[in-house]
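Hi team,

As requested, here is the filled-out complex form for the glycine run. I kept the field names the same as last time so the parser does not choke. Let me know if anything looks off before we queue the next batch.

— J.
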Amino acid sequence: MEYMSTAEIREKYLSYFEAKGCKRWPSSSLIPDDPSLLLTSAGMVQFKPYFLQQKQLEAPYVGTTTAQKCVRTNDIDIIGTTGRHLSFFEMLGNFSFGAYFKKEMCAWAYEFSTEVLGLPAERLYFTVYLDDDETIEIWKDLGVPEDHISRLGEEDNFWRAGPTGPCGPCSEIYYDQGEEFGCGSPDCAPGCDCDRFLEYWNLVFTQYDGQEDGSFVPLPKKNIDTGMGLERIAAIMQGVQSNYETDVLRSLVGVGERLTGAVYGADADADLSLRIMADHSRSVTFMIADGILPSNEGRGYVLRRLLRRAARHGRMLGISRPFLVELVETVIQSSESAYPELREHDAYIKKVIGTEEANFARTIDAGMNILNNMIDGLEKAHEHLLKGLDVFKLNDTFGFPLDLTKEIAAEQGIEIDEEGFHAEMTKQKERARAERLKKNISGWSEDLFGTLTAEPTEFVGYDTLKSDSVVVALSDEETLTDAIATDEQAKEGVLVVLDKTPFYAEMGGQAADHGVITGAECVLRVQDVKKTPKGYYVHTCTLESGIVHVGDHLTARVDKEYRMAIARNHTATHLLQAALREVLGDHVHQAGSYQDASITHFDFTHFSAVTPEELVRVQKIVNDKIFESMNVTVKEMPIEEAKKLGARALFGEKYGKVVRVVDIEGWSTEFCGGTHVKNTAQIGGFKIVSESSVAAGRRRHGPGLLRAGAPPRLR
Ligand code: GLY
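And here is what came back:
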């Protein structure tokens, strides 16, 4: 077989499946559109709605084919210790939603492997799920000898992306790297943990929808989901022993060698560090390009942990300054043709990584000293457990993610009290939550409306501030109920869902409308509105008088002045963003914002304090645009058309096919669902009241925060 570069394999795969009738589809973001998953970990993730028949693929395609960027984090500790585990990898896949199935798929996989890639058939091994005789017969019909086919159980040959959702039995294809790579055990066979049999392709026969109770409901159609690890197949095609010696990853190991003076292959400990630096620099680059920022929770935590693990390993090889940015440039160069978003955001990615690494660099030495002292103390006392409070302090004061402390401690034979650590974290979170609750008047949980089967609420508030609506559901914040009445006095915390509403729900950083809902028998004052994931607008009200029932016909009226005050702040925010870009540069992205009737807060990406002179210029530009009396127009259009207009999307946000675009005479054009004034003159005037870094007390990687206020009322 011939040497093939990673890029060539990717292209050959995608064009092969295109020729079979699959639509070439872009990789989805690493932030999945799926609350059950933290990160996109497989090619099938973006296609779940197609497997569930909630979406249909247009004719004449028989399926889709992708090169999907993936991050898997269930085994971060292993990464670097083997040649085949990576935290970031690309998955080549093809997907059928009821069109082709096992027979076609196996034939194509065999043809692609042996004819397109030219893999010698005698080196290929196939596993199937325990009782899947049908697939055994299919492989045999394709000429695979019986002793190259084996059955494996659920752990290897039943595939699922997460606890629930589309899943099914699978058949895996292995490449025999040769006996010399084996563990020597007489039982060594595909599925063994050693390096002899390398699994490079998984064919999943997606037949079930896994339920929360552990049961499997058959899907309406039989589907195909496949995943081929691009780096693994590249290792095979390039005749090298590990993923780290393939073209893309080897170039990163090379940067590590240059930075540290270490020589790959000369020393096992140094190799481990070089591998970790190479792999992790890819994950963090791609994650940040998709809008993830380092934080202490969720995917931001994964990013922080990977970044800090890589930084520590660089230090272990003697680099004493921040270095990751130098690896990032090579990551971008090697992957930008397939993933142009990397180059698009390169300055931003480097800033985030540089800042996060510099922050950690400031505390890592002090933290390592403290940790080493703690470990010495334990050893002297013949103890082996690091206290939860100590782990918490290392995290809180020195930025050591739990898992990093755990890994370092384990290197010295010390365990950590994870439970104690989590207890400390919970205490800290509870303190923060109590603070938040003080500010949030809505104390209900979204599950409350989980059983509702009515149509989602229709929002009519772009065109009108008043509607005749029907009550669809009522709740006292605890349970759903048919009617709520006042006692002697007004009743707070009455939740009302209407069939249609003019009230804007808090969304996209814009505060909810206020107003009243009235009927023959009741007066409800609306204080907050939230939209549930199923699309119900929940109005949090005070029932000022009377009684309200499900089914009542009521009149909903938005407070016009309040709406206008919010609109002034929202349009001012668009002007502010455009002005910031004009003054500070194109790297400025909105990272969060909030507008209510009195103020706008705007978080954005910028890595030094904005100077007073810059603030004055920004404020002047915004006021100039107000005085120019510019028209604000709102249009719905296909997303492609909006992009052509140069409309700015929120970084990392997903949009449907049709988007709403708010345009201020071409000077500012943004995707936005909010409510706006019709002309900038209606804003009246604009003043920046403060600017600061989001993290109180210390500078963080993160976005800056600008608080600015348009005057709430015109005078
Ligand atoms: N979805 C198939 C795999 O990840 O192996």
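Two things worth flagging: Residues 264-380 form one domain. Residues 346-380 form the longest helix (35 residues).

Thanks,
J.
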